[in-house]
Design a protein that fits this description.
Largest sheet: 5 strands, antiparallel
CATH architecture of the largest domain: Alpha-Beta Complex
Number of helices: 11
Strand order of the largest sheet: 1-2-3-5-4
Mean pLDDT: 91
CATH class of the largest domain: Alpha Beta
Radius of gyration: 21 Å
Amino acid sequence: MDTPDIAVRLARWITDRTEGSQPVSVGGLDIPASNGFSNVTMVLDTTWGSGPDAIDRKLVARIEPTGDTLFPTYDVGCQFRVMAALGPTAVPVPRTLWFESDPGVLGAPFFLMEHVDGLVPSDDPSFAASGWVLALPPQRRAELCDNALQALAQVHAVDWRAVGLGWLAREGAGSTAEREISYYESFYRWAAQGRSVPVIEHALRWVRERLPDSEELVLSWGDSRVGNMIFGAELGVRAVVDWEGATLAAPEKDLGHWLQLTHVYTEQFGLALPEGFPDREGVLAGYERWSGRRVGDVAFYEVMSGIHSSIQALRALTLMGHGVGDGGALVNNPFTRGLARLVDFSLPEGGLDILTGKR
């Protein structure tokens, strides 16, 4: 389906949602370069009504991917429901509009939300390599990170029962962490396609042997990092985005992911942590200050994040053409190196220095 056809279909679809009271036209449609193996995002320039009373609105369409995908299953309806539930809370999220489950409109289910203007730290290239974050003075970078940790604490403060998000609990037997590991094991088998990545297999055994004694369940964002936040010019968090991994889990799950991915996008990419960004202890102290919680076993969840991101890298590299003849990249890349560091595992020489073009 080409861009003009998509614009016409969306204009008709939105007009139907307004029951014809405001004819809607789509004058521009942009597909950001950051799109890739995960959900497809489109930015729409729309006009509601006609004549002098017409109103211009910028919207965003989030479309379920088709064909070769990064994950075994997708559910953009889940993302829509989470964001809609968070609308009345203190968590800043884009305002959701409508969800469409019928793939006949755009070829896959999708939803629409309002566009949020702002700045997003890049991960490809890393925010630590170039871009607006590095242009900030260190004090302002520290302010950005503190605001981001405050937003993460707001996510965990949500009364998930009161807003109707109990359905996010992962199905299966055992504790929440055990169910998460079972999902990772299944995801790994699917992504590996019969191949072996020893550090992932070692880490899966590592976490099985070190399950947390207890868990306090909070709304877990799932992909917690500054690259999934939209910041205003004053560096306040204007929106927390990308909720496809949302679940109920211990607060340390998001913290572990935050720490592990920050490490990968800096040190494992051969980059220094930008001055002003808090180190590991600073992140945990900032989170405790904003949340009022004492942090538990974050190290366990750093490994959990390393497992998940390494499996994603395995799948992404496979889709990028790294296969049987290029196994070095699959077993030794920035994500598996970040995981190996945490579980004291030696990787073979060679591999991939930096993961580029992954989106």
